[in-house]
Amino acid sequence: MTAGGSVEELQGQLxxxxxxxxxxxxxxxxxxxxxxxxxxxxxxxxxxxxxxSLRWGSVIYLxxxxxxxxFPGGISLKVYGQPETRRNGxxxxxxxxxxxxxxxxxxxxxxILVTHSPPRFHLDEAGQGDGFLLRELWRVKPLLHxxxxxxxxxxxxxxxxDLFERHYADICEGKAGLWxxxxxxxxxxxxLVTITDHELEQTVSVNAAAVGGPRDADRRPAQVVHL
Length: 227
Known about the structure:
Blueprint: H1 7-18, E1 25-27, H2 38-44, E2 59-61, E3 65-71, E4 75-82, E5 85-86, E6 94-95, E7 112-115, H3 131-140, E8 144-147, E9 155-160, H4 163-172, H5 178-193, E10 202-207, E11 211-212, E12 218-219
C-alpha cells in the first residue's frame, strides 16, 4: 500500500480508499508496509513506524486471514490474504528463499486469493515467483488470484489446473524435457478438437502492480475482472 511504510503514509492510503465508492475494499500488506509488520517495526525502533492506531474505516485488512463478502442476490465470495515475499533486502513480511510459507495454509473453499508474492512462472520475472505458492494454487483452485511485487509482470492470464500446466511447470523448472513437450503438444491438440470443461478448472491470475518502468515512474491503470 505504501512506498515508505510509515504510519502516516498508511493512514493517507486508507483515507483515500475510504473515499472510494466500492461496496467492499480488501487489502493486504506488501513488503514496504513496515508499520504493519510488528516484528520489523520493533526492529527499526522509529516512531514513524509505531505509535497511534490506524483508522481502517470500511477497509478490510487480511493477514493470514479470510473474510466473506456478501453481494445482492445471495452471492458471497470468500477472500484469503497473505503478505509474505522472499527475502530481498530488509523489508517487511519476508521469509528465507527455501522456506515454504504457503503449503496447506489456504482453505479449499477460498474463492479469491490475495498474496503479495506471485506464483512461479506466472506473471513473475523469469521464474522468480514462489513454487510452493504455485502448488497451493493447484490444490485450492481459487476463481481469482491477485498479487503484485514483481512489477514487470503486470497483467492478466488464466492458470489451468490440468496436466498441460503441470508439464509446463516441469519444463520451466528443468525437471522434464522433450517427452513432456510432446505431451503438451498432444494435449493442446486435444483441447482444440474436443469440447471439454477445460475452462471450469482455471484461475484468473492478476498481477496488479500499479507502478513499473525505470524508478517505478510508470503508472498502470486498475484492472477489472469479470468472474
